[in-house]
Amino acid sequence: MKNIKKGFPPIADKKAKVLILGSMPGEESLRKNEYYANPKNSFWRIMASLFGFGCDLSYKEKARILKKNNIALWDVMKACQRRGSLDSAIKDSATVENDFVSFYSIHPKIRYVFFNGTKAEMEYKKRVMPRLPDVTKGITYYRLPSTSPTMARLSFNAKMIEWSKVKIIP
Prior knowledge:
Blueprint: E1 4-6, E2 18-22, H1 27-32, H2 43-51, H3 59-68, E3 71-75, E4 77-81, E5 91-97, H4 100-106, E6 112-116, H5 118-128, E7 140-144, H6 156-163, H7 165-168
Parallel strand pairs: 2-3, 2-6, 6-7
Antiparallel strand pairs: 1-4, 4-5
């Protein structure tokens, strides 16, 4: 198969209480081997505003700050077939989801999952939720507006208002 994309391992430690899920890294992220590497994606700008750090920090330092704030970062998809970066280009028949049963057993304090956009939520509900054990039933889910530059109908400030929910979770 052509155009098979493979995602990254999670950024997480055992203290994580919040999990932020995207669908699959875009082309720039895959090329740089970093979540949300496209400079037009507002994810790191939002995180920097919420947690008080500069966007110019190294990727390693940004990841450390997320972990320090009990936030894990991952994607619903482990692999997929897609030309380009758009979620709409993902071929449903060639999609493989990540192993969330193992993830939640290693990260038992996760209580909140925030979806970075509609595609992540849809794929999770379709592919992951039916296989989750009862122990994960207490997780609360929120869909947030995508930080992708293709979600241009919302301003940065409008996205910030929605994404601030990530920080107010205890």
